[in-house]
Structures are given as C-alpha cells and as structure tokens.
Amino acid sequence: MNEGQMKDLMKLVWGADPTDNNNPRNVGNLLENTLNNNTNAITTALQNNLNAINALTTANQNRTTSKVVDVPFFYGRDDEDPYEWCQLFEAAFAANRWPDNRKVALAAGFLKEAAQDWYEENRGNINQWHIDNNANNFDTQFINYFATAARRNQWTRELQNIKQGDNESVENYSRRFKKLLNKATQGEALAARYQINYYINGLKSFLVGQVVIGNTDTLEATITRAKLVELGVNTTLLTTTPVTTSTTEPIPTTTTTVKPTPQVDEMEALTKQMQQLALNYANLSSVLMVQQSTPRNTRPRPNNNNNQNRQNDVEM
C-alpha cells in the first residue's frame, strides 16, 4: 500500500484528512468538536424558545379580551348592591382570564350613568383594583361611595322585616336572607343573636316553634335546623294527605252507560209539575161550572094574596 492509498484509508476511517491541520486528527478531537457544535445549537434553540414564550406573554397581556362570563352593568341606583357587584366582577374576571394590568379599565367599562360619572371624577385617585391597606383601591372607594349610611339603614330595616314567601322554600329564603345581610353589614360583623332572631322572625309561623326549640347559636346552624323542620313538615303532609289524581294525566277511555244528566232530570221534573198544574186547573174549572149551573137555595117570597086574606079575617 502506498502513501496515497494510506491517506484515503485514513479519510474513510477517521473522517478527516490527516494532512489538514484545521480538522481534528483523532476520534477524541472529532467527538469534542461535534459535542461543542451540538451544545451551541441546543443553546440557540433554548434561547429562541424563551424569546417565543416572552412574546406570547406580551401578546396575551395586550390581546383583545374575550368574554365567557357576563358582568352586569352597575348604574349607582339605590336598589343596587356595590359589594355584590364587586364579587360578581371578580368571579367573571377570573373565569374570563382577563389580564391583571387591565382590571380597573375593564371594571370601568361596566359602569353606567351615575357610576360612570363617579369613576370619571375619581379615576385620578385610583391606582389599582385592590391592595391591602391602600387608599387608592378601586373596590374600596367604589363601595364606600355607593354604600352610603342611608342605604345601609334602609337595608338594615329590610333585614329586620324580611319574611319567607308563601311558596318559598327555606333554601331560597335563606339565600335571600344572607344576601340582604351582606348588603346591610358590608363586611361589618353583626352579632350572631341578631342574625338568628331576624332569620327566625321571617320564617313561616308553623316552622318557628321547632326551630326555636333547636336552641342554635349560629346562623348556619339555625338554617340547617329550619331545613330539617321543613323536611319533617313536608313528610308529615305527604303521609297524611290523601293522594289525588293530577288533572294533567290522561284520562283512560272506558265504555260506560250514559246516565241522564242533572239538566235532563230537572226538565222531567218540571214537565211533571206542569202536567199536575194543568190537571188541577181542569178540576177547578169543572167545579166552578157545576156551581154556576145549580139554582141558588133561596127563601120563598111572601104571597100578597095570602097576606090580604089574613087581613080580612082579622077585620071580621
């Protein structure tokens, strides 16, 4: 084998020209060079992926918001609850996955009329939705402005006079009571005894006695007791009330003998009465005719001739 053939063989085995100083001339150098090239490629790919993630994050924050859950508009009327509206907005904000840096702007988009006027006048004093112990919170200023003392007093009176509806279940009444309680207190604690008394006073009268006997010490325990009493009452009514067939069920078709209706019976009775009256009238007419044809039984009139004879006899 000559020198040229040896070089060609070395190229086939080692993949490099041994006379070229720029290429590795052994397996170790060749592997090291390949590893370095692959590492650089991997590093570049990771950096590109990181840049893509950052770009997606920025695009997500600046994207046009989508809406999965609706948010009710707030107008600032007396019958609206600002505390409840903030809770509804928070729930919709999380469900719709809206960006945090647009939270205040999105909330302002659902304000109308008086509420919108309030925001335009105070937007310079609002820096974020909420940070604890911060005076520039949107929700704090919003609730303080629209939950005035007069409105809270009104909600408190409604809480004291709330009543369970005739066809309202304990579950629905309890939900309505707690909603009004939140409006009246606005996060301020109301003693449990007042909550329980207001709640029991609004229950249906036939539930009150058994609920009071339960001697509960929290509102939730009182609600649970009221539900049990209601269940017991309903069960008792089901076992004592006879079952009636619903008028909405289809009536089976059966062949029955047609009986005279009350109207037909009344007509027959009326006909018989008319016939009897006609018979009585005929009898009465016959009696009258007989009486008119019979001569009257009168006393005989005195004879003038006889009276003259009696007079002559007396004179003689």
Describe the structure.
With 316 residues, the protein is mainly α. Among the domains are: 3-61; 82-147, no CATH class; 150-239, Non-ribosomal Peptide Synthetase Peptidyl Carrier Protein, Chain A, CATH 1.10.1200. The chain is 63% helix and 0% strand. Helix 7 runs antiparallel to helix 8 and helix 10 packs across helix 11. The longest helix is centred in the first third of the chain and has 35 residues, at 27-61. The model has no long low-confidence stretch (mean pLDDT 78).
List its salient traits.
mainly alpha, elongated, Retrotransposon gag domain-containing protein
SSE map:
Blueprint: H1 3-14, H2 27-61, H3 82-96, H4 103-108, H5 113-122, H6 138-146, H7 149-160, H8 170-185, H9 192-201, H10 205-213, H11 219-240, H12 262-293, H13 304-315
Helix pairs in contact: 7-8, 10-11
